[in-house]
């Protein structure tokens, strides 16, 4: 029995987490859920959107599945997601993007995984005004050898574990010669330790174009924070959007799995939410704890279910609901 912290989250969070825990229970996944609060519910109860108990539970049990969290407006709290990433040093943001049956897209066969460095780069928001009149601004990007090495190694290790063939390092080292140049240099060095995995590098703007022209050439992408932010959403768009994309935030000790979409307040409580993205995140979690066969069994049931217009949710053009979809998926398990 594996203890895993469950944060249901806000808005549609409880509906989609209930769906996912029901599906995992039906698959007999050996999980003991440890409930924890974060987000609006926690804020209303304790005045703190990220209570210490929740942080302690994640610290103790190491793995969490998290529904979307509404960031309370005007509380001065920046973002719980960012706080959790920093607290547990979750330096790899991992997002698979895979063509799903029954989900219409503009593109052919896509099966790629983006590794985004989560702690540095241009994304850290270290900015200032140069002049008092605020007519000029500057922003600092940080890239270090250690932080580059650990994310690049994580991408190669994932390639080995998941039987993938190629890692593409994405950069802009022709212009940003120090920061992304260092990232590229470290990648070239680290790649020598992985002779069985092909390695190439690509400049970010060309990568964006290649991803829409020939998405099938990509297997694993590893890149710095801001490029990863943009390219991972582009990859999601190739396969049908944020509603069908799971993700993991991983460090050396802790891992947090979550859908990439938000709390969807416009449809919360109406039973319409699509649990697919959170389910895909939960399948990454099952693989992480070694329950690969159960993950594969659920994935096959998901793929069968997505083909049935009567049961898929409205965001995918179907006539179903969260409940109908969940029941149908469980019925499709074999
Ligand atoms: P959103 O992703 O919640 O919603 C955007 C649109 O997509 C809405 O029309 C919504 O109904 C739809 N949608 C999203 N997920 C869906 C699902 N599973 N099934 C069916 N339709 C779905 O983005 P929005 O509105 O910008 O943000 C709402 C709140 O979520 C904000 O408080 C934001 O801070 C938070 N948020 C939290 C994230 C997280 O916890 N990781 C990520 C993004 C936003
Ligand atoms: Mg993003």
> Helix content range of the residues, please?
25-40%
- What is the oligomeric state here? single chain
Number of strands: 12
Low-confidence stretches: none
Binned strand content: 15-25%
Q: Mind telling me the C-alpha Rg?
A: 20 Å
| Average pLDDT level | 95
First-last Cα distance: 22 Å
CATH superfamily of the largest domain: Isopropylmalate Dehydrogenase
Q: Order of strands in the sheet with the most strands?
A: 2-1-3-12-11-4-5-10-8-9
Name the shape in a single word: globular
Bound molecules: 1,4-dihydronicotinamide adenine dinucleotide, magnesium ion
Number of helices: 11
Which CATH class of the largest domain is shown? Alpha Beta
The biggest beta sheet reads: 10 strands, mixed
Number of separate domains: 2
Order of helices and strands: EHEHHEHEEEEHEHEHEHEEHHH
The CATH architecture of the largest domain can be named as: 3-Layer(aba) Sandwich
CATH topology of the largest domain: Isopropylmalate Dehydrogenase
Could you name the key traits of this structure?
334 residues, alpha/beta, Isopropylmalate Dehydrogenase, 2 domains, ten-stranded mixed sheet, binds magnesium ion, binds 1,4-dihydronicotinamide adenine dinucleotide, globular, two-stranded antiparallel ribbon
